[in-house]
Amino acid sequence: MLRRVPTTSPFVYAGEDYLFWLELSKLTSKIAFSDLCECIYGEGVNIFAGSGWGTEKSLDRLHHEIKYKKALPRLFRLNEVQLNANQKSIKALRKSFVADLVHRLRNRLPVRAQLLANQLKVDPPAVFPIYSLDDCNSSQAIALQSFPTRCH
Fold it and tell me: Which residues have CB under 8 Å from 81's CB, separation 6+?
């Protein structure tokens, strides 16, 4: 039986459930998997509801996901494959953050200055990126192409 349930904060909007299980796994050297239903979570609140791309909550979700992904190598020992996969995830999240931000600015939707300040502290490349449109998926490229910019 566990004597202590691990908790990690300040991850409150993305990754806290994964971090819980990762921390729990550090308490033992043996982990078993089963396809039997031995635990029932029940109903809860889906904090990701209403936070899809382009919604008011999407930048918050992306900020917290980037924060969580960037913390993983500090909190856990990752092998090279895991580090590479994590970096790939961070890169994709950055692109989504920029595309979402451009979408909000282009459509004159509100962007909280505090969120941008927080993101700048956590991950400056997500606020001031340099991307080629070739690196973006189609919806991101459309958002970026439609934003008036000057390139020299």
Answer: none
pLDDT, residue 28, reads 84
CA 56 → CA 34, 86, 110, 112, distances in Å? Answer: 39, 26, 8, 10
Residues 6+ apart with CB under 8 A from 94: 66, 123, 125, 126, 129
First to last CA, the chain: 63
pTM of the entire predicted model = 0.70
Structure token pair of residue 35: 């396809």
Alpha carbon distance 107, 65 (integer Å) = 24
Q: Give yes or no for residue 75 having a pLDDT over 80.
A: yes
Written as six digits, the tokens of 135 are 């690196």
Which amino acid, one-letter code, is at 63?
H
* Mean of the per-residue pLDDT values of the chain: 77
Q: How far apart are CA 97 and CA 14, in angstroms?
A: 14
> What was the pLDDT predicted at 92?
93
Q: Where are the alpha helices (DSSP H) in 15-136?
A: 16-25, 58-75, 80-106, 113-122, 124-127
